[in-house]
Amino acid sequence: MIKTERILHLKSCRGRKVRVVREHYVRERVPCFSALCQADCDNDGKVLPGDLTHYVVPDVGVVVDYLEILEFRELQGIVFTQTACQAVQHSKGRRQYNRLRNLLKDPRHDCVLFANEFQEYSYCPREKGESQEKWQTRCVYSAAVWYHNHLAGMMDIVMITEDQDAVAQFSSLSSGVYVVSVQDYLSNFWMELHAAHELYNSISQALEEKESEGTEKEYTEHLPSEILEAGIKSGRYIQGVLNVNKHRAQQEALITTQASSNKNTGTFTAALRDVLVYGGKNRNRAVHGDVVVVELLPKSEWRGKVTSLTERQGDEKTGEDEKSKPMPTGYVVGILQRNWRDYVVTFPPREATQSQSRNSQRILAIPWDPRIPKIRISTQQADALQDHRVVVRIDSWESTSLYPNGHSVRVLGRAGELETEIQTILIENFIHVPPFSEAQLKEMPVNSPEKPWKVHPSQVASRRDLRGTHLVFSIDPRGCEDVDDTLSVRTLDGGKLLELGVHIADVTHFVPEGSLTDLEARSRATTYYLADRRYDMLPAVLSADLCSLLGGVDRYAMSVLWELDAHTLEVTKVWYGRTLIRSSYQLHYELAQALLNREDTEVPELAPLSPEEKDAKLAELTQALEMLTHVARHLRAQRDRGGALELEGVEVRAQLDAEKNITALVPRQPLEVHETVAECMIYANHWVARKIQKTFPHQALLRHHPPPRQEFFSQLVDSAKARGFTINTSSNKALADSLDRAVDPEDPLVNRMLRMMATQAMSQALYFSTGAQSQEQYYHYGLALDHYTHFTSPIRRYADMIVHRLLTAAVDLDKGLSPAVALATNKELEETTQHINNKNRAAQRAQKLSIELFQCLYFKERDPQTDPSCVADAAIYAIRDNGVLVFVPQYGVKGPVYLKNRDGEVVTVGQDGRCEWKTGSVKRYSEHISTTCSSGTSTFTLFDHITVRISVQPSRCHADSLNLEIISNKPHKSAESQQPHSQGRSQLVQEVVRQAEEASQQAQERASRGPRLSKEEREFCQSKTPNLYSLLEEIRELALMDVGAAANVCASKTESRLNTDWSSSNRHLKNLS
Amino acid sequence: MAGLELLSDQGYRLDGRKATELRKVQARMGVFAQADGSAYLEQGNTKALAVVYGPHEMRGSRSRTLHDRAVINCQYSMATFSTAERKRRPHGDRKSTEMSLHLKQTFEAAVMTQLYPRSQIDIYVKILQSDGGNYSVCVNAATLAVIDAGIPMRDYVCACTVGFVDETPLADLCYAEESGGVSSLALALLPRGGQIALLQMDARLHQDHLETLIDAAMTACKGVSKVLDEVVRQHLQEVSVLTRE
C-alpha cells in the first residue's frame, strides 16, 4: 500500500471554506471482476463473462444522468468506476445511489464495480486548477486504460462519455481504449435496442430543458434537512407520508404521521394523527407518497374535510361546501424522501398543447393516477404520441416551476385499447413481469418426451419413500392440472392410531435459494391474476409439470404426517420432512363426494381393472375418504370452539371442454368434501407454523390477522340498527353469530350488504417475522388460531417457499445437521415479508382495476338509453350529503348516485316512481336523505331498492368509470334479474375479450400492433363467482384469505386461482354470518 | 447529500484501506537533545510529539509525593494549527484535561514506577496535526519517548481505536470515520502479556459486539507494537553505531 494525500475543499458547519487533507491509500491489487483476468485477481461474487465483444466503462456524467439506459439488461459487461458511483452519491442522493448499488448486486445484470481510485496505476490525483468534471473523466479514462492493460488487450474496452472534448482528447491517444459518445455507442453496438434509443433522446431533452429554466419562484424553497430533523425532534414540525385525496387531488392531501414520531413527541402529536394540507401552494411540490415534513398553521386557519360527493369530472367547488369539523392543517416545509416511481401519463391532443406552452416541444402530460400532478415533458414526438399512454419518470421539481419536469421512458400504446390499459394497471401497481429469461429457464430441469425427467437415486435415499406404503390421492376441481397438495390417511397399530398426511409439492427442491429463478420469484412474490390472464411466479415447467403432484407419477413432496389417537383424535406424534410420493388417484370434488355418499360411480383410475380388484380398491379408497372426513369434522369442531368463522358458500364452477373453453356454468354444490380438504390444509399450515416458530423463535415467517379496530364497525352497527338488528362486535364469534341473525326474510341483500360492511371493517392479514412482533400478536382472528402461516401453495406464493425452506432447516436441525445456507435474520425476513405484503396488495389492486376496466369496456359497447342491460336494480348502502352510495348486485358495481346536480337541481319522484330533476334542496339525516322541491318531498332510506341506469363516464387520461343515474325509486322489476347472475361476469369478460380481439384484428390491418390473446390467455378467462359484487368485495378483502389457503384447495385451479380466493373469501363472508 | 459510506460493498474504507488495515505509522526517537526522552510519531495524518522529563525530584507541591513510587504527570495539548479550523485554546480545555488524565492512567499501568519512589516523571504530548485517533497516537508517541528516556516499562504500551460499522470492526479510525457516527472504542494494550492498560468507549454498542470489537482492537495494537519495536531497534542501532565511533 502506498499512502498519498488528497486535498479537498469542504464547507465547514459555519459556512466557511476549509481545506481538508485526507489520506488516500492506493494498492496494486484491486480485483477486476473479469473472467479473463490473467493476474489472479481475488474475484469473488459477480464476474463479467469473457465471451463478450467489449466491456463498457461509462463516464461519470453518463452514470449520473443516463443510469436508466445502463439498466437495460441487454447491455452487458458494464464496468462502473468508483469515481462514478461517488459522483452519483453526491449529486443524486441516496435513492439514486441505492438504485445503482442494487444494480451492482443484482446477478441478473452484467455489471461490476471497479475501485479505480484505490488502484495504484489507475488512480490519478487531481491536478491544480483542474475542474472536477475534467478530473473525473480523466480518472474514468485511466481506469479504462488500466482494464485494457490488465486484461492484456484481450478485451476491447469502450468508454462512453457525454463530454465531446473528452472524446476528442482521448480517442487520439492510442491506448487501445475506444472513447465514444453515448449516442454513437448505442447506434453502433445496439442498433436493435430501440427502447434505449428512445430513452436516451427523452433524457437528453429533459436535461436540455432543465438548463433553460425560468427564475420566477412558484413555490417557497424547502428547508435544509438539518433544520427539518431538528424541527421534528423538537416537535415543531411533523413528519409523515403525503396521501393525496383521490377525488380532490388539487386541494386536499393528508399527512399520515408515523407511529414512531408520535412516540417521540408525546401527547401533542399523538392527539393529531393526520394533518390536512390544503391547496397546491401549501403542498409545496410534494407528490403523493413522499415523506414530507409539515408545520402546522395557526388554529384559526384550520379547515375540515369536505364530505359531500363530488362529480368526478367537475371543477373543485370552493367555499360553500359543507365542512366537517376543522382538523389540524399545515403546510409542507420540506421533503425528506421522494418516492417517485414510474408514472403512466397520457399526452393531450394537439390543440391543447399549443395553447398552454410557448414552446411546442414542451407538453404537459396528465398522469393516469389522478393524485399525481401534471408532468412537463419535452419531446419531439408530441404529434405521434397524442392520446397514447406513456411511461414517464419525474426528474426534478424546481421551486421556479409550477409542474415537475420529467422524461418519457417508453410508449405503452393508444389509450383505450385493452392491452394498453392492462399494461397501465401493471405499471401503476409496480408489477414487473417480463417473460422468464433464458438464463432462468436454463436452470430448470428438463422434462420432454425425448428426455423425460426421472427421480434421482440420491433423492430416493435421502427422502422418505411413501410410494409403497401410503395411499396418496388429490382432490381438486375437475380438470385441474397443477396439483400442489395431496392427502393420505391410514390406520396404524391395528386400528389404535390414525395417520393423516398432507403432501405439498416440493418447489424449493427445484428452486435453490439465490438462484435466478428464486430471485425472480421473490421479486414477483406471487402469481398475478387479472381478469383475463395471469402472470406466473414460476416458469411453467415447474408450476404445471414437475411440481404438480399428478396421479401415477413419482414426485417430490414436503409432507406433514400426524399420528392421531383413533378415538380421541389427539395428536400423538407429528413428522415433517421431504418425501417421495406417487399419487394414486386424482379425484375431483364431485367424485369424492359421490364416493362418500356410496353412490355408484366410476373412478377413471380403476376402469381397466377386473371387477373384484376394482371393488377392493374402491372400498379402500372410500374408507380412506371417510376417515378423512371424520378427522376433518373433529378439527373443525375444535376450531369452532375457539371462535373460528364458519365456512360455507355457494360457488360456481365452469365446465371446460377439450379446448378449455367455458361451456357451462354449474353452481357448485357446497359439498362437505370441500371443507374437509380445506380443513386439512389449515391444519397443515397451523402445525408447520408451530414447528418453525418453535425452532426459530426470532426468524420464522408466520401470518397473522389482527383483530379489527372497534371504531371501524360503527358504520355496520349503525346501518344494522336502521333495520332493527343489533350487531355484537366484541369478538370474532359474537360477530359471526350476530351477523347470522341479521337476516331480513324479504330482502336477502340486506344481509349481504351488512357482511360487506363487516368485511370492510376487517384489518388485513399480513405476513411477519416472529422476531418483529410480540407473541400475543401472532393470533389469527379469522381462523381463531394462535399460529398460522402459508405452506400449502408454494407454486404461486413466495411466502410458502420461504416457509418450506424454514421447515427444511428445522428438520435438518432436529437431525443434528446445520443448515447448508444461513437463514435470513429477523431483519432481512421482516424486509422480505414487507415486500411480499406490498406485492400482495399490488396484486389485489391490479386485479380490482382490471375488473373495473372490463366492466367499463362492457358497458362502453352499449347504449345506456336503449339497451335493457344497462338498467339495473340497486340498493342504497350509505348516505352522503348530496347523494347516496349504492350497490348493483347484478354487476357487482358500487358507486355514488347524486341526488343533487351542479345546477342545484334535485331528484324528485313522480307518481309512478319515475325520477325527474327539479330545483330544490337536499337534507341529510342519519338513516335517510330527502329531497324537497315544489312538487313535494321524496325520501331515500338505507337499504331501499332503486333502479339505476349505468353508463360509462369516458375519461381520456384516467381510467374510465361507471356512472350511475337514478331513474326510479322502485326496485327494478325485470325477470332476468332473478336468474342466477353468475353468468353475468363470465359473459362480460368473454364479451370484452372478444371485442378486444376484433378491435385488434382491425388494428392489425392498420398495421399497428394489437393485443393478441393466445389460447393460454383465454384459458384464464374467468367468471365463476356468483357475480361481480362478491368479486369486488372479495378482492378487496383478500386479506381474509387465510381461508384462501384452504380455499386454494377447493378452488378451481385451472380456471383461475383468483377464483379460488374469491370463493374462499366469499365463504368467509358467509361465515361471518 | 447522503451520509458517507464508511465501508463500501467491496470492503474498502473511505481512504482505501480494508477493515483491518492500519494507517501508515512512521516514528523517530530522540528528536530533542534537551529533554530526557523524546519521540515524534505519525499515524496517517495524525502527528504527535512526545517529550519526557525525569525521573526527577518532585516539583511544585511536595504534598503529592508518593513514598513508594514515582508520580506520573501528563500534559496533553493540541497545536492551534492542528485542525482544519484554527483552534482558539491549545490546552487546558475540558477535552485536553480528560485526555491528560487518560494518558496518566495508561502510563501508571505501564511504567515501573516503584523503582523511583518520591520522584516525578513528566510526559508532555503535543498533537501537531489531528486526523483521528488522537489518544492512541499520543500513547504510542509517549511510549517511544519514555523508552528514549530510559525509564523501565513492563512492556510497550500500544494503543489503537476501533470502530464498528455494518457488523465489521474497523481498525485505526481516521477523522472522517470518527466523525461519521461510528461507535468507537480506544484500547491501550501491553501486547506481550495481553493486559489492557486502558479501555475507553463513549458510544453505544450492543453487548454482543463488544467481544469482537475488543479482539479487533487487540490485534490492531499488536500490529502497532511490531512497528514500534522496529523503530526502537532501528534507533538503538543508529545510536550504538554513533557511540562506537
Short description:
The complex is a heterodimer of chains A (1073) and B (245). Chain A is an alpha+beta fold and 1073 residues long.
Strand ordering within the main sheet of chain A: 18-25-24-21-20-19-26
Summed over residues and divided by their number, the pLDDT of chain A gives a mean of 75
Oligomerization state: heterodimer
In DSSP terms (H or I, runs of 4 or more residues), the helix count of chain B works out at 4
At CATH level 2, the architecture of chain B is: 2-Layer Sandwich
Termini gap of chain B? 62 Å
CATH domain class of chain B: Alpha Beta
CATH superfamily heading of chain B: GHMP Kinase, N-terminal domain
Sheet/helix structural class of chain B: alpha+beta
Number of domains of chain B: 1
Number of strands of chain A: 39
Question: Quick one: overall form of chain A?
Answer: globular
Question: How many DSSP helices of chain A?
Answer: 31
CATH fold topology of chain B: Ribosomal Protein S5, domain 2
- Sheet with most strands of chain B: 5 strands, mixed
Largest interface: A-B, 29 and 22 residues
Q: Mean pLDDT of chain B, rounded to whole units?
A: 90
Radius of gyration of chain B: 18 Å
The fraction of residues assigned to DSSP E strands of chain B is 25-35%
Describe what this molecule looks like in 3D:
Chain A: Its main location: cytoplasm. Chain A: InterPro entries: Dis3_CSD2, NA-bd_OB-fold, RNase_II/R, RNase_II/R_CS, RNR_Ribonuclease, Rrp44_CSD1, RRP44_S1. Chain A: It is an enzyme of class 3 (hydrolase). The complex is a heterodimer of chains A (1073) and B (245). Chain A has 1073 residues and is of the alpha+beta class. Among the domains of chain A are: 23-192, 5'-nuclease (Rossmann fold), CATH 3.40.50.1010; 225-337, Beta Barrel (OB fold (Dihydrolipoamide Acetyltransferase, E2P)); 672-858, no CATH class; 862-968, OB fold (Dihydrolipoamide Acetyltransferase, E2P). In chain A, 35% of the residues lie in helices and 24% in strands. In chain A, a hairpin with an 8-residue loop joins β16 (388-396) and β17. Mean pLDDT of chain A is 75; it is low at 259-271, 310-323, 352-360, 646-668, 974-984 and 1003-1073. Chain B is α+β, with helices and mostly antiparallel strands and 245 residues long. Chain B has one domain (25-243): 2-Layer Sandwich (Ribosomal Protein S5, domain 2). Chain B has four helices and nine strands. In chain B, the strands form two sheets. Chain B has a five-stranded mixed beta sheet with strand order 1-2-3-5-4. A four-stranded antiparallel beta sheet of chain B has the order 7-6-8-9, with helices on both faces. In chain B, β8 and β9 form a beta hairpin. In chain B, α1 packs across α2. The longest helix of chain B is centred in the C-terminal third of the chain and has 38 residues, at 207-244. Classes of the chains: A alpha+beta (1073), B alpha+beta (245). The interface between A and B is medium-sized, with 29 and 22 residues.
